[in-house]
Amino acid sequence: MPPDDGILAFAERVKAETPGLRAIIHNASAWMPESPDTSLSETLSCMLQIHVHAPYLLNHALQDLLRGHGHASSDIIHFTDYVVERGSDKHIAYAASKAALG
Predict the structure, then answer these.
(1) Residue 26: domain span
(2) Which CATH number characterizes residue 57's domain?
């Protein structure tokens, strides 16, 4: 199954279960270091998938649930990390993907 299929299936399940959302909180994360056993491209792709790609798709797929439905406003919250500002010698892709949220 392509990665987007699971994300979009989850969004469809949420839509089937609730008429509206007050907020979406993105807290999924992985602390994957650069490693000689994994290509840099694969590490970066994995980090971007978890921290940027999946939240982006979910935000768009669930936008109708966030609008209206009695809520004056809704929130989309992305957890980031202090490593975005200070950096990390062993978690460069992690820091870059978290920085993409800012």
Answers:
(1) 3-100
(2) 3.40.50.720
Residue 52, both tokens: 């940027």
Token output for 54:
């999946």
H helices of 1-82, in order, are 3-17, 40-48, 54-61, 63-66
Residues designated as active site: 94
- How many distinct structural domains can be found in the chain? 1
| Higher per-residue pLDDT: 84 or 17 | 17
Q: Residue 24: beta bridge partners? A: 76
Q: What is the pLDDT of residues 35-51, one digit of tens each?
A: 999 999 999 999 999 99
With a cut of 70, say whether residue 70 has pLDDT above it: no
Strand partners of residue 26: 78
Percent of the chain residues past pLDDT 70, beyond the cut: 94
